[in-house]
């Protein structure tokens, strides 16, 4: 049984159909890179998986529970699936530690002392155990994104969805964030990443999903997808990004 299962997913904004029947199964512990041209529907696919966007047709389940816009379903989904965005979205008036503590305290009702212990643990996991009391403006972009990853981890999710999480960073800060994600992958976290980092996709991911015009156009292990693209669309895309 796949951890995340997507069947015949269709999503439109007004008359613009952005996802045109997406099928995808993600197993527990799998690391998936979602690649494709701008506008091919990558972000929309992730946002549908996390209940941030409603969809018109098809079915998404996480651990067999349907992803819908129903409040109860959404609350249970938030406990199981975390999402990290291009923008870090930290509260500027709260320390790194407090940013991390907030999620379990507000969503799960975790007591303050327990939330603090969780925050210390997850900040250590992203290499920021020294930065509990630092405010976002005192941190680099890479460090802020690592706090955002820690905040997602504080919910003890079954899967993490990452939407271009290094795209807002200066090039020299990209690697420290990717290293953290690589560590999570090695620890068995289920990950779906929309990314432009082809080397990361090749080195770390189990499978690569190439989106084109709102559909999964090619899918397979990176060794196959990058070395032997079957369609001209993927050949052209790889020619542009590599
Ligand atoms: N909230 C929205 N309202 C209307 N149209 C939207 C909305 N979000 C996305 N779209 C449209 O959906 C299409 C797919 O967008 P999406 O962001 O999923 O693509 P993408 O592959 O992630 O692209 P990028 O790499 O540029 O982020 C685009 O045509 C976009 O304009």
From TrEMBL:
UniProt subcellular location: Cell membrane
Principal cellular location given in the protein's record: membrane
SMART domains noted in UniProt: AAA
Which parts form a coiled-coil structure per UniProt? none
Q: In Gene Ontology terms, what is one molecular function of this protein?
A: ABC-type amino acid transporter activity
GO CC terms for this protein?
plasma membrane
Swiss-Prot/TrEMBL keywords: Amino-acid transport, ATP-binding, Cell membrane, Membrane, Nucleotide-binding, Transport
Classify the protein's membrane topology as the record does. Peripheral membrane protein
- Annotated ABC transporter domain ranges read 4-238
Q: Does the keyword Cell membrane apply?
A: yes
Family as reported in the entry's similarity comment: Belongs to the ABC transporter superfamily.
What name goes with this protein? Answer: Glutamine transport ATP-binding protein GlnQ
Q: Gene for this protein?
A: glnQ_3
């Amino acid at each position: 049984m796949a951890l995340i299962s997507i069947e015949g997913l269709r999503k439109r904004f007004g008359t613009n159909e952005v996802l045109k029947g997406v099928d995808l199964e993600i197993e527990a512990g799998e690391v998936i890179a979602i690649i494709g041209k701008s506008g091919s529907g990558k972000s929309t696919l992730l946002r549908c998986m996390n209940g941030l966007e409603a969809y018109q047709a098809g079915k998404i389940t996480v651990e067999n529970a349907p992803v819908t816009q129903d409040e109860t379903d959404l609350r249970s989904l938030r406990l199981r699936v975390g999402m990290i965005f291009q923008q870090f979205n930290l509260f500027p008036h709260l320390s790194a530690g407090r940013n991390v503590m907030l999620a379990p305290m507000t969503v799960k009702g975790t007591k303050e002392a327990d939330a603090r212990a969780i925050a210390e643990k997850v900040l250590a996991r992203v290499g920021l155990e020294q930065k509990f009391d630092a405010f976002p403006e005192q941190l680099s972009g890479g460090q802020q994104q690592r706090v955002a990853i820690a905040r997602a981890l504080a919910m003890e999710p079954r899967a993490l969805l990452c939407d271009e999480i290094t795209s807002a960073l200066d090039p020299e800060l990209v690697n420290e964030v990717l290293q953290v994600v690589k560590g999570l992958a090695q620890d068995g976290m289920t990950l779906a990443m929309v990314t432009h980092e082809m080397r990361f996709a090749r080195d770390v991911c189990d499978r690569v999903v190439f989106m084109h015009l709102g559909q999964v156009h090619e899918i397979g292990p990176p060794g196959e997808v990058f070395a032997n693209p079957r369609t001209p669309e993927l050949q052209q895309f790889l020619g542009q990004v590599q």
